Amino acid sequence: MTSSVVGCFVCAQAYKDRGNVSICLTDFGQGILKALSSVSKYSYLTNSIDAIELAVQEGVSSRVGRLAGLGLTHIHRFLKVNDGEIHIISGDGWVHWNYKNGNGVTVKRKKLEIAFDGTIVNIIARADGEGLSFIASENPEEQIF
Hints:
alpha+beta, four-stranded antiparallel sheet, 3 helices, 35% strand
């Protein structure tokens, strides 16, 4: 997520009848495109959709540090093994990854008519407890997600 003077808002809703939970994170920062393109190695970025798709790759971050660029990557891994989906809106871009179809991932992209200056991440994940899988780190006593 990008920096924000206002901060970040988090909302969650469990849907027992559907067996899933929806978690939405919203910030009112500069957006993914502006944050990434301010880093010299990502200065080539010119549109929000490309920036969103790059931001979910491991190690990609506008921050420097040991754990920078892992958050969205871990979320994608978790959703992939648990038939989830994620929507990301940032600037004038919207990208939706759907892992629910059982045949890999379906990705949809859309350029929005009105830009949102921050970033919205909406995650829909299984919460039925039946076969729910977690991602472990190399340390067997530590779960990543």
